[in-house]
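## retry 2 of 3
previous attempt timed out at serialization; input unchanged, resubmitting
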Amino acid sequence: MVAGTALAASPIAADTWGISGPQFLGGYVLLGLAAAVYGFTQRARIIRTDHSRAHLATALSPVETAMLFDDRRPVLAGLAQLRGHQLIDSAGTPTRSPSGTEQQTLDQVSRSMHRYMVGTDARHRHVIHLARASRESVAALRDSLTDRGYLIGAEQRRALWLAALPLWALLVFGIVRVFAGIANRHPVGYLVLALIVVLICAFLIQRAPRLTRRGRLAKQESVQRNGHLRPTNAPAYAAYGPDSAAMATALFGAMVLWNLDPGLAGATGTLGAGGVSGSGGSCSSSGSNCSSGDSGGGSSSSCGGGSSCGGGGCGG
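## retry succeeded, writing output
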């Protein structure tokens, strides 16, 4: 009798903030869905800023094309360009100075590398050293392509962060609710799962791709237009002009340098620094499908949660 009376008199924990767990979770999921839809819609708008193909009438240079893949590949393309113009030999030793016409033809990265190689010995002609020597030229190239709308820049990154901001705010709000629920001894398992989904969605929205839509189109067009330069086709690069090997290296990576001049590739440690194919994109064997790792749109992930809550108190 005494035990039954004591049990009946035991206090029942009040709802956290006066809102039951199931009610809070339902509202939180709806807010999460709304924030996710807004974020992914904004992300698609930010990335797909240019639907015009008029810019492709003037093709990018080999080193500019290389920058569409990553910041290392312009050095490899510049090395191939110097070799294609016979400005360096198989050991990476400069053979002559560029002519006036070649000064206009060569990319700035290639010119800075050639100036560096003139004043150094073979021990300092590894691609790591060449990358350091051409760092300012590569940075200028990156800024140029960003200004011309090929690479995602600081402005787009800020816009992506603002697009994800509602989800970040919702995440903080949910975390506060979790701690409040724990303090009131309410179960919060489903709310924690919803927080994980919100966190994933926020990261997906804020993650900045390398290329804009314009950059992806230019990359795809370059691969399609230069499919004959693919190493698997065993092309004679000299037959396509002095810049053909540089363009092939830009598109298909360091293996082109090994096909072009194994001595130069070995002397400069090309594969050790740049990999077989570099990074920053994947191209199909037909050369007709190239992607930069981001579709430029939304995501198929389910964001905002969708768990049903049974038993009560699942949202703290």
